[in-house]
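Hi Prof. W.,

I finally got the Multidrug ABC transporter ATP-binding protein prediction working! I wasn't sure whether to trim anything, so I left the full sequence exactly as given:
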Amino acid sequence: MTTLTGPRGVARQGEPVDAVLDVRDLRMRYGSNDVLAGVTFTAGRGEVLALLGPNGAGKTTTIEILEGFRMRSAGQVSVLGTDPARGDEAWRARLGVVLQSWRDHAKWRVAELIEHIGTYYRDYREPWDTGELIAAVGLTEHARKRVGRLSGGQRRRLDVAIGIVGRPDLLFLDEPTVGFDPEARREFHDLVHRLSDDEDTTILLTTHDLDEAEKLSDRILILAGGSIIADGSPDQLSREMASEAEVKWTRDGQRFIHTTTEATKFVHDLFRQYGDEIADLEVRRGGLEDTYMALVRRFEEAR
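And this is what came out:
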């Protein structure tokens, strides 16, 4: 497994500072099929983790165990200092969950529904102010609209509002921006950064949008074959893979492209040979998508 030092006190070997998630050798078996075969990772306060992996890798099972909705076969799991298998209502009030799809309460008006759900948290913590939360997810002009009349993107924003109304210490996001237009996606990304930076919320998200994962996450976890095969920031994972870089430049009006695994050395030699004749230089290293595909492919070939 590729394991790299993460931000916010998460060390290569040892305990994270202010651990919110501490998962050790998590295993899940259905009959003779091992869906999870020793998953281990940690997360600190305010950290944003993206859990990536091919379909069937065990992402949903992992999340459901952490949320306390599914019993594990073996391993140690601590979520906010509690084993989720024994979490009580006070513990659950500290979690926020945004499912991939949720269809209910069509006759409620947006503001009324958020206000109502917020009342369930008041015995444990102070929920978001309804108007402030509606504004934060971009639904102010739809506050009086019935839920059943919202568009898909508006409904997704409501899903997010419902998931965070209790000001969770830990938020689970499953494909959070499905149905969002580009503007709504940018606004949601700003909200995620606000939650992690200002509210110190730890966020674990699953997404098939690798560009989104790269923009939002402090760390990437790649799950394949029931175990974590890589753990690090997008930049760390890319450097670990030492993927090829594409160098583009112009000289004497001609455009050139060269692929190399030693981009720095190549560019240095290029300027040493041609100096000021070089213009429009671009160096493009492999992004998260390239890294993700390479890591999964390497894992599958080694099986």
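Residues 244-285 form one domain. Does that look reasonable to you?

Thanks,
D.
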